Amino acid sequence: MLDAFSRxxxxxxxxxxxxxxxxxxxxxxxxAEGNKRLDxxxxxxxxxxxxxxxxxxxxxxxxTGLIQAGGNCYPNRRMAACLRDGEIVLRYISYALLAGDASxxxxxxxxxxxxxxxxxxxxxxxxxxxVSIMKSSATAHIGETNTEANGGSKFRKMETTxxxxxxxxxxxxxxxxxxxxxxx
Length: 184
Prior knowledge:
about 180 residues, mainly alpha, Globin-like, 2 domains
């Protein structure tokens, strides 16, 4: 896994050159946006169990056959495996968001995931749908588009760095899209 700094060094080394002014400017921007990145990761990790359980619930509501006898979320051990997998995917997405690099997600989570799901008989369409729901929820938390009107009595406002988080929302969304593409 490479973070922004390591990536700049590796790139410069491959060119047998010093780290360039453009790379330094990009690193300066990465550091300046660091607190927002940390807040985005905190928004995901602090709400991980809710994000995953809501996504699995949403997936099941759209396909109730999953919890019927013979369905892929029946019996309880399969449901637990589904929730576990969702937590793992979300954890690796948070690692990628923190590092600003998808290699940890690709190498340790997505490499062979579709083949494993196919071998285990996991419906990849349902898995992709659950990740899509997680994407919506996580990006809402990062962009702070969750509101008291939507959350009701369970609404919790997180203390975050002020400013535009649209770039982080797009980055996080791209990691979720990688997962969806990998399992589809």
